[in-house]
Amino acid sequence: MKRNRWRRQAAVMLLLFSMVVTACSGSSGGGGTAPTDDAAEKPAGSETPAASEPAPAKPAEPVKLTMMRSGSGLPAPDKDVILQALNENLNMELEITMVPSEYEQQLNVKIAGGSPPDAFQVNKLQMTQYAKQGLLLDLTPYLKDMPNVTPENGFTEDHMKKGQVDGKQYSVPYRPLIPVQTTFWVRQDWLDKLGLKAPTTLDELSAVAKAFVEEDPDGNGKKDTIGITGNGFEGTLGPIFAAFGVAAPGHYMIQNGQVVYSTELPATRQAIEYIKGMIGQGLIDPEFLTNSGLAHQEKGFKGQAGIVYAHWAHMKRPDMVEKMNSINPNQSWTQLDAMTGPGGKFADAYDAGNTSYRMVIPKTLEKEPEKVGKLVEYFNYISGGEGQLLVNFGLEGRHYNLVDGRPQVIEETLAEVGHATIHQMTGRKELEYLNARFGSLKPYFEFANALPIITVYDGFSPIPEGVNPADKAKFESEELVKFIYGTRPTDEFPAFLQTLRDTFQLELYLTSASDELMKLGILK
Amino acid sequence: MVTNRAERIFLFFVYLLLACSALAVLFPLLYVFSVSLTPYAEVLKNGGFTIIPRNITFEAYTAFMTDSNIPRAYGVTIFITVAGTALNLLLTTLMAYPLSRKRLPLRGPIMMFLVFTMLFNGGMIPTYLVVKATGLIDSLWSMIVPGAVHTFYLLIMKTYFENLPESLDEAAKVDGAGDLRILAMIVIPLSAPILATVGLFYSVGHWNEFLGAILYVGDAGKHPLQVVLRGILNTSQMPELDFERVLPTESLQMAAVILSTLPILIVYPFIQKYFTQGALLGSVKG
Questions:
Q1: B91 interfaces chain A, CB cutoff of 8 Å
Q2: Which residue of A has its CA nearest to B39?
Q3: Which of A4, A20, A414, A423 to mutate to test the interface with B (most CBs of B within 10 A)?
Q4: Of A76, A109, A314, which has the smallest distance from its Cβ to B128's Cβ?
Q5: For site-directed labelling of A185, which of A67, A249, A328, A497 has its Cα 20 to 30 A away?
Q6: pLDDT by residue (tens digit) across A353-394?
Q7: How far apart are CA A202 and CA A102, in angstroms?
Q8: For the stretch B23-43, what's the b/e string if a residue is b when 16 or more beta carbons lie within 10 angstroms of its beta carbon?
């Protein structure tokens, strides 16, 4: 009796379980995903008319590769025309995983779990650590198989150093962009209304900002306008430090053959005093530290701010201009040159050692030379010639046409390749690319490209053993904010610098930066 | 109920106060909702603040719904919420009930063993290795099976079961019921409030599944809603390359908030009645 009842109960439980399990299989069917993972691997040829040329003795099987990167915005493989073409042309099945957040943690678990992707993105610090732990494949022997990776294509000797650890090449680094692309933009119609000229010096900039705050440039009878806005600490104050001839605090510069830390330079303290004065007079957007995304640009377009420190594309890209006109079409913005200040005429700091991506290959892949060979072929393919055109613009005849050997973008299909930057894993030749893609904006980016810059070398400066750079950065930025807002008197600046040296071991950082720059031949 | 005037005035003020606090809670929600329905240029024209939308547009919502990943992500999220919560409740109940009965041998050591996991855990990488070794990587079950029993909720449930009168058990035993029958026929029907509460905690947890998906599921086709939304709303990690991207507008962000909270918000009123119901109405005549 009792046992029988128990059986019935067990049956009920089993039923519950099986319901759960069936719910699972039901969902994967109903969710629109095929149970196989090969939905993406339909041969791309099935949509294009079959090529008539018989394939020469190629291995029939495409090489399967996985790649992991941080970021987002990659379309599904069936919509990714560039990926389909890459897979077809190189006879591979590349699967790219984009990680929208927590990239570092995910990479760590994958590597610790012994299943790293076949290629993955690292920053400078990770590359150094992993290389020292022997986890990365040294690509130096494979460079001879990459005929497109040449100085003519933008891979200069100095640039390649960004992918090296101890002289070994672990990555083909992403090629440089225009050094400084942000400039001050000023509301021209406000200037005209108040009878002012576009500022060229730091003091004129302050004067214009003051007029914008106090003289009601929008004529609404309220004192509701901001002078200067930008994006965060450096994205607003960088150009002001530059006018004093220094990079914003926290960067490594070279002066008189020595590596120096920008925070410690006398000009930095002067710049901080000057900025403190500007904030005291209310010339800078009170929210500038927390602005992110396009907040600064929107404050400009909305008619709240008259001077915006912004990227040329964010002010002049056709869709941005449309946005501006939909808010108020009676406004015009003028791109300003670098401000001249006590330290000369400089636009902003540029990190000569920085690169946007470094893709590396794990050492465990050595056991599969076929995969390594394919990755090398791939990195080479997208770094020049037809592969470069493909990852820049898409398919010839559909997304661009070659006119006198120059690519011309077809506007109608542009949306299909809006994600092209994701596929430019080794970058592009910047000016050629911009001219093809943003031809109408040429005056703005060429102007930005010619700006005088202050070079910094952070990207080349390794993190010394046994320090925590995040702690130092946090302390430094917190104190600097106190100084510019006057909550800590600037008389205490020397004490602050002493803390950096005593508590945060600044000397170690400088020594290791100096050693590395000597080794690379940048410091002589 | 209310007899004299003084009491009525007092009640009026109580209701007024409650109405005000309800409004204070609703206001941000209304703002989010309005911005998601207003054309973004309009929002900017109003200085970035809109409470009652003048022109309504469903652009932000259609932008999401035409993204091929969103409907599928909803499917994934609904599945892990439903199946996950069912499994959570089943396992938690089956564990909490025996632990609530004093005649269970080794009750103390088992409790110690459980509480230990509240204070110490393996950490991310060891957990990943366990998930990998059990073959759950890249499957939907990796978001359901790890953490199927949450110790804290187990303790809440156990305490609740302990408070049920022993005499109910005894009465059923006399009638010849076994343990499982007592659980299924007597304890569970009396435990609707706690099952609803714990079930809600669990299901909100599943609905907001993010980190587990990020760590264990590499296949974008199996990503739940929160991960996909985050992918759409994310501004890239490389601001210097951002100049080519179309960045999500505030309207789009607000629409994402609505899309991701509305379904779980709708569930609340249906569970509400279990929270307020007396737990043991009429079970034992005292």
A1: no
A2: A326
A3: A20
A4: A109
A5: A249
A6: 888 889 999 999 999 999 999 999 999 999 999 999 999 999
A7: 40
A8: eeeeeeeeebbbbbbbbbbbb
- The alpha carbon dihedral of A101, A103, A104, A107 has a sign of positive
Which B residues, 142 through 161, put their C-beta within 8 Å of a C-beta on chain A? none
Model confidence at B67, pLDDT cuts 50, 70, 90, reads confident
The model's pTM: 0.79
Closest CA to A320 of A444, A180, A190, A432: A444
pLDDT digits (tens, 9 = 90+) for A381-436: 999 999 999 999 999 999 999 988 889 888 888 888 888 888 999 999 999 899 99
Query: Where does residue A72 fall: left (phi above 0), alpha (psi -120 to 50 degrees), or beta otherwise?
Result: beta
Cross-chain Cβ contact A23/B132 below 8 Å: no
Q: A-contacting residues of B 167-226, CB under 8 Å?
A: 176, 178, 180-181, 184, 211, 214-215, 218-222
Of A22-36, A160-174, A248-262, the poorest mean pLDDT is in: A22-36
Q: Which of A25-39, A298-312, B58-72 has the lowest mean pLDDT?
A: A25-39
The residue of chain A with its CA nearest to that of B68 is A76
What single-letter amino acid sits at B202?
Answer: Y
- Which amino acid appears at position A444 of this protein? Y
Domains belonging to chain B, first-starting first, are 28-66+246-285 (no CATH), 68-239 (1.10.3720.10)
CB spacing of A112 vs B129 below 8 angstroms: yes
pLDDT above 90: residue B65? no
The tokens for B169 are 């058990």
Give the pLDDT confidence of B213-250 residue by residue, as tens digits. 988 887 778 889 998 888 777 665 555 666 777 777 78
Distance of CA A235 to the CA centre of its chain: 14
Query: How close B283 gets to chain A, by Cα (Å)?
Result: 24
How do the residues of chain A divide into helix, strand and coil, expressed in percent and rounded to 5?
50, 15, 35
Nearest CB partner across the interface for A326, out of B41, B215, B244:
B41
Q: Which residue of A has its CA nearest to B230?
A: A100
Structure tokens at B279: 């737990």
**Which of the four pLDDT bands, split at 50, 70 and 90, describes residue A42?**
very low
